[in-house]
Specification:
107 residues; mainly alpha; 0% strand
Length: 107
Amino acid sequence: MKEKTKISLNVDNELLSKVHEIMDASPIDSLSYHVISLIKDGIELREKVKRQDRMLELVALKNLHMMRQLVVTRGPDVLKQMDEQFQEKLPELNDLILGNGIDYEGT
């Protein structure tokens, strides 16, 4: 049997009203159930965001590696310039990946 600990929370009225909206749409009428469910969902979403961030970083590093391989013969100055431009364009690259649903799962 799982151990349980009773806690008390101070929740602002706006957040509580949102929890009550969720409760009203559910056949289960337990505040504890819904708060626990929302906490679990939040933890799962945090893990998904962390995983997504790691995948974005991996895709960015793979792109940087590929770009560096293409320009390596042009000398260190070109590599340095490309690295700087890559850092500037990195937020755009991440937006492109996320916005267009590019499949980076197989990387």
